[in-house]
Amino acid sequence: MTDETETREGPTRAGFVALIGEPNAGKSTLLNRMVGAKVSIVTHKVQTTRARIRGVAMEGSSQIVFVDTPGLFRPRRRLDRAMVAAAWGGAADADLVVLLIEAHRGMTEGVKAILDSLREKVGGRPVALAINKIDRVKAEALLALSKEMNEAFPFERTFMISAERGHGTKDLKEWLGERMPEGPWLYPEDQLADLPMRMIAAEMTREKLTLRLHQELPYELTVETEAWEERKDGSARVDQIIYVAREGHRGIVLGKGGETIKAVGQAARAELEEFMGRKVHLFLTVKVKENWLEDPERYGEMGLDYRDGA
């Protein structure tokens, strides 16, 4: 009989890794690459990750729980401030932090601001640097950027990666696995994320809306899964509400003859069915809630603290 924290590959390990960086640095793409499934929404828009989504990845006998934080930026509204507070909170709670930067953008003002806050916010936690999108620059520029970053902050390791293509991500994952504290796994081996399916489903629909609407309604909408019914035939009926801040936004979400919401619903349903491996009946309703950006309950559903936005 073996100890529950032992496997054939040695002692089990488990811990939390926070991915931090500027908006659009590729944190969600890297999380999905590490986990091997889509658990965080990925769009061309910045600031799409609101809640601290946890993705669970296995690496040998190690379980790595990734905390995908909202991008760090200069906050203007209550929602922005709550998102930035959540990002730093995720970093402070983790065993290890990975700062992700874009190779072609280098050390931006935003990256400098993050470096200035790192020591204060993460204490003595180890921080690794991952330079992403390496296919966009030449080797000399990469080496110069790595040198500049490591002179600015004592990173434990530097990784050159392409989260989208997978280059270098295996080395990063193996290194993270080795650095996790010894202890029993925190989640079942086959569990990908600790978010309730209701929230994952809402995030999928919000991603499709973000992609479809482009610049029209950047962050003036949110999606809530109102009801989830398991049916006898193995399928699920999912009812969601899309909250918009103004009456005029309702028409934009619906589209001419309802074509926008129909396309969004079809795309979200297809992705949800693929994720769950079974049939899903998805029903979307658009409601106007003028002050949803000031509603504490909405913040709680997004994994944010309303008070952090003060």
TrEMBL record:
It is a peripheral membrane protein. Residues 21-28 are annotated as: G1. Residues 13-182 form the Era-type G domain. Transmembrane segments: none annotated. Residues 132-135 are annotated as: G4. It comes from the Bacteria. GTP binds at residues 21-28, 68-72, 132-135. It is found in: Cytoplasm; Cell membrane. The keyword Glycoprotein does not apply. Residues 161-163 are annotated as: G5. InterPro entries: G_ERA_dom, GTP-bd, GTPase_Era-like, KH_dom-like_a/b, KH_dom_type_2, KH_sf_prok-type, P-loop_NTPase, Small_GTP-bd. CDD domains: Era (cd04163), KH-II_Era (cd22534). GO terms for cellular component: cytosol; plasma membrane. Keywords: Cell membrane, Cytoplasm, GTP-binding, Membrane, Nucleotide-binding, Ribosome biogenesis, RNA-binding, rRNA-binding. Its main location: cytoplasm. Residues 213-290 form the KH type-2 domain. An essential GTPase that binds both GDP and GTP, with rapid nucleotide exchange. Plays a role in 16S rRNA processing and 30S ribosomal subunit biogenesis and possibly also in cell cycle regulation and energy metabolism. NCBIfam families: era, PRK00089.1, small_GTP. This is GTPase Era. The lineage of its organism: Bacteria, Pseudomonadati, Pseudomonadota, Alphaproteobacteria, Rhodobacterales. The gene is era.
